[in-house]
């Protein structure tokens, strides 16, 4: 390389390996700058030389091409062979640098964070030369510049100024007032000059030399010889630190005896601001202590300009006394240690009632009244006292909401509004949202369908224009929640310009907008009922919704004496034309053939607003029209018993990944419906089990940072963080282009491309703050057809118990635990099927709008995407020398002599566990060279679980504190009283506790019971075995909590439970109802032991395959507290009480015979699995938790 440039030797000495990316890039730019070709790294190439190009254009192209080739040579020649293979196929030097930045650029992020932390946290130490401090700060700034951090000159200067000591406050004030604009070098010179001036000045507050030589401290009093006051006798020294005493509210002024009036200017005090004040008198001060003793201070100054008039002080010599004005107390210190505090006696008017309020632990005034009335408290009068701020801080609660507020007295005096959506299905016309406006006086409602939330303002203008023209009155108040759609500047300005008062609800109090909230809930309840009865597709919910609001306006409500329609129009409503929504109808044709049928069979779907007649849908022609000539077949329709359950809820409208402890397959649940025509075969929808649907929701909540993340491209463009979303989308598209995910082609004849959409998430860090903004392009895989667009979809994920086992081993052996994240993991998978997709919104190629994307690789959202990625990764990691665990396909091991490394794959999250830092670093390098990786360093937060570690004690803890706080807030339980056990001892649930009346059932339907159980279930599966029994019990009611459900108190089925520990920590646990009824405790325990033995076999095989736990070669011991069950497990017996046990449970005998497990007896009081089968007293429960290693985190770390 030295043939090109002598400076190129620095690249030879510092070849790119990965971790040295920042240094290598800096050296490369130096070399390219010297050769004057650095511009090719940023500039676009000139237009290709065409046949009609000028000579100047051809020369420019040749020059750029020559420079680009030279830059490519420098880049390729200064990196390792592995990286050369990755980059040599790229076209330009700019492409190479972009690819390298994707691979290694993230590594500089942690370095930038460290440098920024050093810059912002470094403070100047008093006495340190300012030059030394500023040079240190400049070194941090230069380091940030080198790492690519963007800081303007003003920010750099502000960082330095904010780190200075208080002695530079005057300089900082002058700098800001004069609005200086200087370089860092100029700032350094200015600060050095300021430092010289500060050194020349006298101390901030001082006495004249004459005063310093005369002031003495002479304590007097008969009791000052006692212990604790000996230091006062020693303190007959010069006064140097100064202190004032306030005369207001104390007996200080009365205690001062003037000895001598000072001459003008005799004693001058200089303040920190530069101002000077004069003392006017000197004398003796008698300080009366709370102990009735008197402390006499000689040579005190009287300073009228001070708020605190009197000045005195002391000096440290043998003993130290310090008189403090901040709390009116005297601290007596001997040998630098405080020994006592003597309080001044205040003479202040204090409310005696308030004093008793404080004394009695901040009880309320009603209790004080009762104490006075009953006699224990002697107060002449109970007086009201001002607001107690500590009470506000300690007792603040939400104000209760009354059942009824102040009602409006006329129409349009108050309008309630609320936006609902996005709903789970798109309505005809592309609608996902709707907005309602309800008049408070009449309860008459208006409803408008919307595609985006941003349409709310236009809908309000449409609503206002209509109702004000109809009624002749004006809207006065608009009440809404705090949704962002109501806080747009144009919306607020419009309300202000038209004299309409905006009345948003206070934060966290949706009850204030209860009228609109309840109306939306009622509307959706009606729509679900109407849709369930009809034959119409769910996309017709928009028409059902408009019909529902039409009907609600014409039926009575508890809130008003008449119907809303009557109060709004002053006319009684007519119900003669009301028909059953969705019923079949025969509608007369507009163009009738003489020999053909004169009507079409259609479905009634609503009432037009702008014309008379009815809305009908013709299924054969798939069109909606208005007609008044129809015959409705309501009677036959009402007798139809076939019903379809319709799910229509607000949702996040994005696919979600489900972690499952018992099912290794990753289930991708689509959350958007198919809008293609359904096939003629069975329309039965195959859904994942309820347990996965619940975990679905929980995992989504754990991974999401915010509930208000944008759900559409339009919302992201209107979001306050629009710039972050744009960068995130550009980064995602760069990944698409880099991985060559698709090519643009003409749309094939007869092919319908699948759609795609953007999904936005704010990712939270361990502290709960936004860490990254992520935009993901997702294919609408729910429109794929089995056998055409995909075949197999199964993809394994690591089980949580596998992760816990490996973490336990890592803690025991003090292994390293590192974490990496695969960027755009699914883009690495290859697909065999031919799939076409629409171009993503916001990135449609100009001039190629009609073309579609032919997918060359898998993309998020495709049904086979997860499987394709897993196959690709499995093949790659095995080629690097890793072997796959037979019993856990997502756990890999690599052994080289005494070096061992484990790799755990959970979709796109990777955990590396090993005993050699060098080997693990090489693995990270290899992964980064094959996939776009993000190095997260030492693992601290995995799958929403916080890791705590004390390597000295060989301890590792798992906590879901952020997740638990989140679900408590979600179900409004963040302020609930803390309990000590998850299930109260002695409580038994049964079907008799289920709702019986219709009112109770309706109330229960509104409770998020299943969602709450699912939230608990995720915590139980991950880190909380202590709630296993409680979750098992309450989950039996989640399917239909408002009906009679058989529980164990009714069907007498027992509970199987077990818990396995490794290294004094629980690694696997279970508590579930047995599927057969046992007629004795022996049989129940035998069945439970059989289930535990099967789990033990898997654990033993898995750990044996790891090859690092020698003790696993011995049988795993199962402790059982029933001798009968043990006897049946050890040897076959044909006892009359056990001979009927099903054969499948006798598998435990073979397992014991093979030597996989051994079963021994344990006393019931010591059985650690006891909390998994029943509620226990608190002390017993806590004892078992301690054995399982479940403790409060702060008791361990």
From TrEMBL:
The keyword RNA-binding does not apply. InterPro entries: DNA/RNA_pol_sf, GAG-pre-integrase_dom, Integrase_cat-core, Retrotran_Ty1/copia-like, RNaseH-like_sf, RNaseH_sf, RVT_2, SH3_retrovirus. One of its GO terms (molecular function) is metal ion binding. Keywords: Hydrolase, Metal-binding. GO terms for biological process: DNA integration. Residues 396-572 form the Integrase catalytic domain. SUPFAM superfamilies: DNA/RNA polymerases (SSF56672), Ribonuclease H-like (SSF53098). The keyword Cell wall biogenesis/degradation does not apply. This is Integrase catalytic domain-containing protein. It comes from Fagus sylvatica.
């Amino acid at each position: 390389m030295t043939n090109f440039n002598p400076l190129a030797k620095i690249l030879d000495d510092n070849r790119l390996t990965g971790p040295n990316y920042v240094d290598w890039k800096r050296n490369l730019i130096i070399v390219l700058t010297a050769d004057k070709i650095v511009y090719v790294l940023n500039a676009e190439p000139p237009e290709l030389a065409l046949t009609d190009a000028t000579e100047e254009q051809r020369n420019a192209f040749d020059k750029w091409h020559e420079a680009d080739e030279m830059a490519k040579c420098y880049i390729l020649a200064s990196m390792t062979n592995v990286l050369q293979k990755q980059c040599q196929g790229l076209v330009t030097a700019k492409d190479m640098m972009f690819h390298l930045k994707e691979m290694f650029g993230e590594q500089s992020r942690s370095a930038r964070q460290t440098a920024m932390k050093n810059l912002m946290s470094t403070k100047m130490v008093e006495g340190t030369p300012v030059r030394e401090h500023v040079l240190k700060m400049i070194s941090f700034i230069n380091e940030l510049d080198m790492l690519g951090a963007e800081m303007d000159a003003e920010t750099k200067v502000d960082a330095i100024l904010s780190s200075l000591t208080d002695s530079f406050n005057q300089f900082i004030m002058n700098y800001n007032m004069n609005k200086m604009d200087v370089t860092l070098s100029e700032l350094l010179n200015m600060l050095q000059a300021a430092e010289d001036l500060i050194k020349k000045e006298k101390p901030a507050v001082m006495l004249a030399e004459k005063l310093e030589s005369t002031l003495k401290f002479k304590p007097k009093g008969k009791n000052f010889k006692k212990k604790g006051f000996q230091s006062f006798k020693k303190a007959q020294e010069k006064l140097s630190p100064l202190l004032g005493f306030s005369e207001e509210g104390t007996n200080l002024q009365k205690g001062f005896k003037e000895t001598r009036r000072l001459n003008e200017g005799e004693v001058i005090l200089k303040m920190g601001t530069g101002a000077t004040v004069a003392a006017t008198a000197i004398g003796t001060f008698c300080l009366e202590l709370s102990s009735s003793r008197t402390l006499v201070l000689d040579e005190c100054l009287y300073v009228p300009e001070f708020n605190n008039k009197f000045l005195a002080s002391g000096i440290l010599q043998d003993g130290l006394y310090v008189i403090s004005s901040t709390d009116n107390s005297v601290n007596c210190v001997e040998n630098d240690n405080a020994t006592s505090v003597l309080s001044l006696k205040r003479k202040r008017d204090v409310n005696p009632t308030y004093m008793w309020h404080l004394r009695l632990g901040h009880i309320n005034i009603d209790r004080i009244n009762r104490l006075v009335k009953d006699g224990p408290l002697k107060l002449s009068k109970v007086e009201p006292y001002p607001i107690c701020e500590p009470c506000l801080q300690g007792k603040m609660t939400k104000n209760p909401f009354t059942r009824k507020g102040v009602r409006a007295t006329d129409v349009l005096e108050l309008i309630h509004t609320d936006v609902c959506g996005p709903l789970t299905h798109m309505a005809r016309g592309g609608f996902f949202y709707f907005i309602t406006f309800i008049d408070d006086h009449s309860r008459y409602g208006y409803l408008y369908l919307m595609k985006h939330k941003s349409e709310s303002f236009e809908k309000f203008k449409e609503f206002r224009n209509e109702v004000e023209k109809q009624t002749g009155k004006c809207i006065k108040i608009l009440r809404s929640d705090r949704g962002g759609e109501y806080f747009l500047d144009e919306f607020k300005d419009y309300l202000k310009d038209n004299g309409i008062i905006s009345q948003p609800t206070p934060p966290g109090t949706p009850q204030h907008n209860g009228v609109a909230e309840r109306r939306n809930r009622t509307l959706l309840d009606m729509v679900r009922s109407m849709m369930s009865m009809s034959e119409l597709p769910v996309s017709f919910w928009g028409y059902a919704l408009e019909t529902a609001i039409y009907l609600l306006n014409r039926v009575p409500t508890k809130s008003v004496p008449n119907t809303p329609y009557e109060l709004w129009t002053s006319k009684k409503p007519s119900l003669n034309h009301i028909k059953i929504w969705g019923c079949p109808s025969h509608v007369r044709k507009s163009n009738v053939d003489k020999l053909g049928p004169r009507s079409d069979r259609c479905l009634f779907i609503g009432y037009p607003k702008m014309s008379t007649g009815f809305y009908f849908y013709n299924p054969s022609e798939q069109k909606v029209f208005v007609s008044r000539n129809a015959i409705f077949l309501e009677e036959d329709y009402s007798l139809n018993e076939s019903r379809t359950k319709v799910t229509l809820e607000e949702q996040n409208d994005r696919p979600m990944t489900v972690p499952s402890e018992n099912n290794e397959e990753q289930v991708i649940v689509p959350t958007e419906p198919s809008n293609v025509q359904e096939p003629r075969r069975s329309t039965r929808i195959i859904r994942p089990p309820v347990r996965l649907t619940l975990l679905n929701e929980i995992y989504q909540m754990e991974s999401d940072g915010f509930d208000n993340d944008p759900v559409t491209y339009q919302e992201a463009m209107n979001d306050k963080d629009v710039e972050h979303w744009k960068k995130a989308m550009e980064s995602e598209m760069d990944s698409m282009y880099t991985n060559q995910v698709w090519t643009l082609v003409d749309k094939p004849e007869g092919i319908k491309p699948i759609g795609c959409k953007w999904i936005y998430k704010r990712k939270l860090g361990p502290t709960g703050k936004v860490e990254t903004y992520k935009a993901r392009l997702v294919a609408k895989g729910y429109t794929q057809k089995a056998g055409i667009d995909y075949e197999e979809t199964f993809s394994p994920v690591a089980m949580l118990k596998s992760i816990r086992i490996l973490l336990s081993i890592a803690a025991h052996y003090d292994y390293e635990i590192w974490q990496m994240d695969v960027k755009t993991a699914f883009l690495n998978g290859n697909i065999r099927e031919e799939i076409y997709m629409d171009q993503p919104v916001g990135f449609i190629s100009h001039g190629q709008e009609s073309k579609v994307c032919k997918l060359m690789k898998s993309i998020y959202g495709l049904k086979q995407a997860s499987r394709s990625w897993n196959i690709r990764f499995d093949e790659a990691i095995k080629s690097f020398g890793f072997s796959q665990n037979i019993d856990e396909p997502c756990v890999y091991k690599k052994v080289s002599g005494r070096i061992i490394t484990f790799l755990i794959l959970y979709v796109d999250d990777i955990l590396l566990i090993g005993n050699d830092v060098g080997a693990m670093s090489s693995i990270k390098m290899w992964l980064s060279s094959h996939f776009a990786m993000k190095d997260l360093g030492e693992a601290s937060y995995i799958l929403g679980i916080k890791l705590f570690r004390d390597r000295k004690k060989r301890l590792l803890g798992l906590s879901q504190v952020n997740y638990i706080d989140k679900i408590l807030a979600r179900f409004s339980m963040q302020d609930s009283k803390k309990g000590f056990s998850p299930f109260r001892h002695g409580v038994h649930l049964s079907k008799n506790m289920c709702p019986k009346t219709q009112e109770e059932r309706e109330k229960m339907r509104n409770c998020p019971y299943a969602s709450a159980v699912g939230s608990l279930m995720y915590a139980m599966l991950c880190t909380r075995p202590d709630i296993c029994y409680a979750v098992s019990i309450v989950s039996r009611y989640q399917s239909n909590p408002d009906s009679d459900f058989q529980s164990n108190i009714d069907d007498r089925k027992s509970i199987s439970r077990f818990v396995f520990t490794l290294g004094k920590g629980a690694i696997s646990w279970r508590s579930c109802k047995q599927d057969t009824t046992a007629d004795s405790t022996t049989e129940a325990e035998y069945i439970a032991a059989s289930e535990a033995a099967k789990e033990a076999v898997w654990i033993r095989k898995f750990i044996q395959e790891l090859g690092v736990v020698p003790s696993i070669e011995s049988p795993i011991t199962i402790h059982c507290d029933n001798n009968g069950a043990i006897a049946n497990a050890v040897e076959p017996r044909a006892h009359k009480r056990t001979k009927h046990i099903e054969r499948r449970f006798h598998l435990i005998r073979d397992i014991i015979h093979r030597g996989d497990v051994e079963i021994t007896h344990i006393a019931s009081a010591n059985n650690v699995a006891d909390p998994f089968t029943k509620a226990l007293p608190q002390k017993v429960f806590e004892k078992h938790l301690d054995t399982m290693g479940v403790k409060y985190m702060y008791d361990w770390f």
